Predict the structure.
Amino acid sequence: MVTERAASRTAVIVCQGRAAAHGRLAPDRFADPTAMPLLRAEEQAQVHLVRRGQPPAGTKPRLGYEMIRASAEIMVPRTVAIDDAVRAAPTEQVVILGAGLDGRAWRLPLSGATFFEVDHPASQQDKRDRAESLDGAPPVFVPVDFARDVLTDALESAGHRADAPTVWVWEGVVPYLTRPEVTATVAAVAARSAAGSRLIVNYQSPSLVSDLIRKTMSAVFRTTGPWAGEPWRSAWSPAAMSRLLALHGFAVRADNDLLTVATGLGVRLSQRSTLKNSRVAVAER
Ligand SMILES: C[S@@+](CC[C@H](N)C(=O)[O-])C[C@H]1O[C@@H](n2cnc3c(N)ncnc32)[C@H](O)[C@@H]1O
């Protein structure tokens, strides 16, 4: 197991997006009361500016502000689509892959379900420190580097049951993995998925516009930006994702882009192309 890399910074940006959106965007369908408490004081201060609509002076602070504002727009449809798919499949075990600062284990009322959170060891340690203030039972933490560790063994050791159905949540992680890493992770998930399991996967479809936006942001923030150590490594067309899942016994039941979900929620949108290329697929075994 490898721990030399730093805790994920993209996990903080998406958590800031959820904190900025909570109670403000689509409040009848989206809520994440765990997001703000999972942030550190200086990260909360940035969110408060967005919530108040007060852009700070200076180019870099302003870009940081815009990043959180944009993240909020993406997080609302992404969270709603995934939460709906989790709730629709009553289960005794939920595994969140690449959990980052996801608060589902604390906020989703799935009575009797055991939550497992799988994440890179550095990100997971950071989460454990931050989550101390949250009320409720914590999940079972399973430190795993998808690029190097054996997910099946780690889950077995953590008490996950391969003979009972699992709901898998894989949100905001696939773009950061290479194609072989994604393929190996799907194989591991399949190996521990009893009949009746559900895999909910969020991924990016290929897009020149999204690539350009991403590269521009990386160039502006260079070594200090959240993406400096977390480049995007793979994009999947819906057909390619469906083929990969089918190869491992998962049939795709739904696969929607977030622009469609956001439009349905009535969220006012400023970044249609990013939302159009982010997708949530729900597959069953
Ligand atoms: C953008 S964050 C998303 C976090 C969370 N799923 C969410 O949507 O709020 C990306 C997450 O992927 C995890 N991740 C990226 N590469 C990984 C790897 N090789 N092994 C384990 N986790 C990884 C990071 O640690 C981080 O928690």
